[in-house]
Amino acid sequence: MEAPEQYPFDVAALRADFPILERSVGGDPTTPGEGPDDDVDLVYLDNAATSHTPDPVVETIADYYRTYNSNVHRGIHQLSQEASVAYEDAHDTVADFIGAAGREEVIFTKNTTEAMNLVAYAWGLETLGPEDNVVLTEMEHHASLVTWQQIGARTGADVRYIEVEADGTLDMDDAAAKIDDDTAMVSVVHISNTLGTVNPIRELASMTHAHDGLIFADGAQSVPNRPVDVVDLDVDFFAFSGHKMCGPTGIGVLYGRQALLESMQPYLYGGEMIRKVTFEESTWEDLPWKFEAGTPSIAQGIGLAAAIDYLESIGLERIEAHEELLAEYAHEQLSDLDGVEIYGPGGDERGGLVAFNVDGVHAHDLSSILNDYGVAVRAGDHCTQPLHDKLGVAASVRASFYVYNTVEEVDALVEAVTAARDLFA
Ligand code: C6P
């Protein structure tokens, strides 16, 4: 795509793939898209929660339903074979995309949360005991934090947290102290969905491996917007969700090193994941199917592969540069406003999101006023309650950017925040 002066690619042309961006808002939300008072342009800045789906991906999914919708791995008939090939190929597309050795290392799940639960149950419950510890960080998403907390409670393993410094980065001295010879698992978010911090996964991996532990990186906020290579990151497990990267909901990915996945028991039992079943016992299918029990999310898996093709057609380096450009600009503009407190590191050191509060205005009120301006942001604890406790706030407002966002949309955000602040002054 041709790049206008300020962007790494042609954002205006790309927006044409997302008709939803053309809609206005302001009507009755109980009749989506049909409110009588629809009157302001949508400025969608809630991409860290869910991104939009471009027409080529929607078309790929529609084509599946229109022309070869069928169950996979079950029929000899033509449609089932076509669906099986497309679904299996989608695993290869994902493997190539993240640098995995092959489809054996790519398990399709419902989302990042399910990928984490899979490892926590299939590996953690079987392996951990009171002599072990699991190391998280204070900025973990509940998907990791609550899951390992539960596994810790059931196995007796100690769950400990690497501290977050005042600037929103990890205290690496604390990491070196907490990761020790009893550390069985380190589970760390690659990019914080609240602070925007980009964590040093490679360094943490080398610390962890020096103590013979395993490391699981949460890529929900990194895979959508930068090149990721699991071998280069040196992680044992990695997870992300399709719906934050131009793909559909209902599909996520667990990457695991093949030897580890081979050594683990299945997480769910039933059809699809077995090889031989008798009344007495059963044996398991090869990877990755051993971990994909029941009818999988077929259309969604094929849709995820289409989303990857779409992102690769833009170029992941260019997407990263675009996110950086918008995050830095938003950080700078919001920092200039009196009464605005921004969480996390400086504008040039963060992923494409900015969480903040305005003095004297509750995050929910602020986001409601922003909504009146057509600006869609997220307000709340962003599934990082303990981190918000540490920040000393119950909630924050978060603007998060993606491929189709523009500098003008950041300006619209800043204008709406200014108006809200002045209203409450
Ligand atoms: N964060 C957000 O608005 P799921 O819901 O399973 O697709 O992804 C969970 C998850 C895990 N880790 C990180 C870092 C995340 O950001 C998320 C999802 C959304 O921030 C919904 S809470």
Give a short summary of the structure.
This protein is α/β, with parallel strands linked by helices. Helices cover 40% and strands 16% of the residues. Strand 11 (274-277) and strand 12 form a beta hairpin.
How are the SSEs ordered, and which strands pair?
Blueprint: H1 11-15, E1 24-25, E2 40-41, E3 43-44, H2 55-68, H3 78-98, E4 106-109, H4 112-127, E5 133-137, H5 142-155, E6 158-162, H6 172-178, E7 183-189, H7 201-210, E8 214-218, H8 230-233, E9 237-241, E10 252-256, H9 258-263, E11 274-277, E12 282-284, H10 298-314, H11 316-335, E13 340-343, E14 353-358, H12 363-372, E15 375-376, E16 378-380, H13 385-391, E17 396-400, H14 407-424
Parallel strand pairs: 3-15, 5-6, 5-7, 7-8, 8-9
Antiparallel strand pairs: 1-2, 4-10, 9-10, 11-12, 13-14, 14-17, 16-17
Helix pairs in contact: 2-10, 3-10, 4-5, 11-14
What is the number of helical segments per DSSP (H or I, 4+ residues)? 14
Whole-number tally of structural domains: 2
Strand content: 15-25%
| Distinct ligand kinds | ligand C6P
Give the uncertain stretches in residue-range form: none
CATH architectural name of the largest domain: 3-Layer(aba) Sandwich
**C-alpha end-to-end distance:** 45 Å
Strand tally is 17
Give a description of the structure:
There is one protein chain. The protein has about 425 residues and is α/β, with parallel strands linked by helices. The protein folds into 2 domains: about 150 residues, Aspartate Aminotransferase, domain 1 (Alpha-Beta Complex); about 260 residues, Type I PLP-dependent aspartate aminotransferase-like (Major domain) (Aspartate Aminotransferase, domain 2). Strands 4-10-9-8-7-5-6 form a 7-stranded mixed β-sheet, with helices on both faces. A 4-stranded antiparallel β-sheet has the order 13-14-17-16, covered by helices on one side. Helix 2 runs antiparallel to helix 10, helix 3 packs across helix 10 and helix 11 runs parallel beside helix 14. It is globular, with a radius of gyration of 22 Å. Bound molecules: ligand C6P. The site of ligand C6P has 17 residues, from helix 4.
